[in-house]
Amino acid sequence: MSANESISDDLLARYVAGTTTPDEQAQVKAWLAQSTDHAQELARFERVWEASTQVGPPAMEVDVEAAWSKVNKRIAAKNEQVEPKVLPLRKSSFAAWRVAASVLVVLGLGWLGYRWMTPIEKAEIAVVKTQKNTLEQTLPDGTKVFLNENSTLTAAADFNEETRTVTLKGEAYFDVKRDETRPFIINANGTEVRVLGTSFNVKAYDNHVRVAVTSGKVQFSTPKQKVVLVKDEAAATSEADTIIKLPALNFNEMAYRTRVFVFEKTNLSDVVASLREGYHADIRLGSRRLENCLLTARFEKESLDTTLSVIAETLNLRVVRRGNSILLDGSGCE
């Protein structure tokens, strides 16, 4: 029995790449339990997947559409040639970080739920913290928060009373439940973000705080200045507690949550920076002559290997792995 008769190649690809949801993982495991042939099929698919990420010699002229086609053809060709063999699964480093942090996350969520569901003293607070992982959390008021890695969200002891106040260190995307009687307030490294109900991203790993709004209206303030941001607007703090509105909203900054990257004649140095933050991977360029190569492409919930393979095919580059680092190298695009 082949995998295609009962499970999609897309789901198997994301399972091998380590980007499946818990429900999808359960679906694959149930499929594996149906027959020993399925384990062999999955092992063969993993060999095909790994083989497909090995980029060959540069072509003379390749665009993004041709690069996608070439990567897909390699997967199909290898699928017909590789003999079935049971191999251990090797998931991406992004998934490995999530597994490594699972115990911490489970314990943290259990404690957080207990603190928010039972009476607490005014002096006490509730904390959600991430390390080498991301985490989505629903607050008691119905607000959804998606924390990036190395971030901490602290809720005030009187949360859900007159105001809904939290403190953020790191980065998080907020989808705030609207409540006109209780404003939602985020304190982040000397700044304040105040809303009634909207969606936005706050990046506050240091004193350079950035706010990007995807819906509704946000009030962003420092001790010296206050600005109002609406949908598709962004701003950041600068010297002397001032706020500067940015020329355009960069949705790639939120790819750690969406796993969607959109590049429009973007310098390769900026592409690599976006991928590094979005995939939490150490990606570098082999030389400075590659920095100004331009890329126009869209990647939506693709694995890191697939994304890098398409970029390499498009710009005639090689993907070189050195330990935990990934290098994009080649002769350049001049």
Describe the protein in words:
By secondary structure, this protein is α+β, with helices and mostly antiparallel strands. The protein has three domains: 3-90, no CATH class; 95-249, Jelly Rolls (Sandwich), CATH 2.60.120; 252-330, Phage tail protein beta-alpha-beta fold. It contains nine helices and 18 strands. The strands form three sheets. Strands 1, 2, 3, 4, 5, 6, 7, 8, 9, 10, 11, 12 and 13 form a 13-stranded mixed beta sheet that branches. Strand 12 and strand 13 (243-245) form a beta hairpin. Helix 2 crosses helix 3 (36-52) and helix 4 (64-81) crosses helix 9. The longest helix has 18 residues, at 64-81. Mean pLDDT is 79; it is low at 1-5, 51-62, 82-107 and 114-124.
Can you tag this structure with a few keywords?
alpha+beta; 13-stranded mixed β-sheet; Phage tail protein beta-alpha-beta fold; 334 residues; 3 domains; disordered N terminus; 18 strands; Jelly Rolls; 33% helix; three-stranded mixed β-sheet
